[in-house]
Specification:
Layout (H helix, E strand, L loop, with lengths): L1 E2 L2 E2 L21 E4 L3 E19 L17 E7 L8 E7 L7 E5 L7 E8 L8 E4 L1 E8 L4
Antiparallel strand pairs: 1-2, 3-9, 4-7, 4-8, 4-10, 5-6, 5-8
Amino acid sequence: MSLFGLPLWYFSQSPRVVIQPDVYPGNCWAFKGSQGYLVIKLSLRVQPTAFYLEHIPKTMSPTGSITSAPRNFSVYGLDDEYQEEGKLLGQYVYEKDGESLQKFPVMENKLTFQIIEVRVLSNWGHPEYTCLYRFRVQGEPMIQP
C-alpha cells in the first residue's frame, strides 16, 4: 500500500515463523542486511546434539536463486536471556547448493540449555535482506530428579 509512491505499510512475518512447520516462498522471517540474530527459548533444558537450518530450495524460489539464505552462522547456548555471551556450540555454513534442510552437529558439549541464540553472520549475496525459514534444535532433554 502506498500514497504518492511512498510505502505506508510493509508486511513482515514475526520471528516466530522460524519455529513453525511451513516452508514456502515468502513465509520466512526476513531481517535487514546480511547479519542478524534470533533467540529461541525451548520448552525445557536440553543438551543440544544438532541443529537444522532449512531454506526453500532454488526450484521453489521465484527468482531461481536463494541469495537471501543464511551462509555463515553460529549457534550459542545461553543460561538466561540477559546473558551477553553464551557458550559457542558451533560455527557453520549453510550450503546453497545442498539440500534445503541441512543438519549441523554440535561441537563437544556436556552442558544443557533452555535458550539458544542463532547468529547469522552473512548470506549468499542478497544486498537488502536475509531470510530465516526454519531452525530446529535436536538434543537430549535434561532429566529432572
